Amino acid sequence: MNDDPVNGGRMPKKERMRFVSAEQVAQLAGVSRSAVSRTFTPGASVAPATRERVLRAAEELGYHVNDLARGVLANQSRLVGIVATRPEVGFRAHLAAALAKSLIRRGSIPILINTGQTEDELLAAQKMLIGHRAEAIIILSGSPPTSFVELAQRNGQPLVVIGRSESDVDHVRAGNSEASRKAATVFYESGRRRLAVIGSNSKTPAIVERENAFLSAAASLGASVSVARGGDSDYEGGLAAGRALFSEKAKPDSVFCANDLIAFGLMDVVRQEARLRIPEDVAVIGFDDVPESSWLSYRLTTFRQDPLIMAQRAVELMERRLEDPDSPPGYERVIPELVIRQSFRP
Predict the structure, then answer these.
(1) CA-to-CA distance for 110 and 128, rounded, in angstroms?
(2) Tens digits of per-residue pLDDT, 208-234?
(3) What secondary structure does DSSP assign to 255-313, as a single string?
């Protein structure tokens, strides 16, 4: 510790903010600056005794290689941009966390880019994405505009999209249609005839696909279907759509919700405002299986998307693209499984 009398015996703030340099390691180890560089460069030639002195000095000082500077010199940033709109919401939050974990495991540096929702926020996010020369970009489901995809393509950056459709890029998608058709089928086979589906006016690709597939399957079964949409794909959207559904005289006996957050809002309306029982009066199925789905207040039957599997598939596609930039677009489809809880038991 620096015995600086002006700072009460503490190291000056400016000094505390400095990282240990390779030059300091060289001085302590009694070697040249280039010897330190060779020690931390894989495959470089350095005498065993010199390497040992450098590593001992580095450990004593707490030195770490400046990977950012090294990446700039090699024109490889190792940064991977994770692009999302409202990344803190629902399944996207868990997917972003899983992606960060998978990327760190492979030695990449994840950088989360929240696109925001205003034009100024979108422009700032785009500048950040390109300015940092990301090694690759992963765009999550939701509503990041297609301009992000086009910008990455123009700059030759490897790109993976999750839960959305874009031309000439690598994809990871959930089996939205398969799950939604199954939801309609299990409701019908359990004797439910007044079906409903809740989507949202945000009309993200995944939400639209789930809604349309449910409607198509219900029509083929001959069941009547009501449709309600909240403003967004969240709890408040579920509240609004639930109130619209259960203000009608003919109330549904089963509701498929395009995600779990919507389902939570709906379930609270059904129990607290409509005074109906779940599942006796109204059966509910969600989509995503976020952790709150198993909470005692909800115990929601839902289709599980595994964020770790989705993330790993995305990283594998990214790695393939980095190794072979001219390979045809890859496509991974992950089929969700129905997790049975108390809100509906087929």
Answers:
(1) 13
(2) 999 999 999 999 999 989 999 999 999
(3) EEESSHHHHHHHHHIIIIIS---TTTT-EEEEEE--GGGGSTTT--EEEEP-HHHHHHH
CA distance 90 to 106: 26
Residue 44 pLDDT: 76
Single out the residue of 116, 255, 257, 268 nearest to residue 200, CA to CA: 257
CA 73 to the chain's CA centroid = 30
β-pairing verdict for 109-114 and 170-174? unpaired
User: Which residue is associated with the tokens 């009608």?
Assistant: 248
> pLDDT category, 72, cuts 50, 70, 90?
very low
- The strand pair at 79-84 and 224-230 is best described as unpaired
Pairing of strands 337-339, 301-304: antiparallel
Euclidean distance between CA atoms 132 and 334, whole angstroms: 31
Task: Give the closest residue to 99 by CA, choosing from 316, 317, 315, 330.
Answer: 315
Report all structural domains of the chain as residue ranges with CATH numbers, in order of start: 5-65 (1.10.260.40), 76-174+308-334 (3.40.50.2300), 176-306 (3.40.50.2300)
pTM, rounded to two decimals = 0.77
Q: Which ranges constitute the DSSP H helices of the chain? A: 13-16, 22-29, 33-39, 48-61, 67-73, 90-105, 119-131, 146-154, 176-189, 205-221, 235-245, 260-268, 307-323
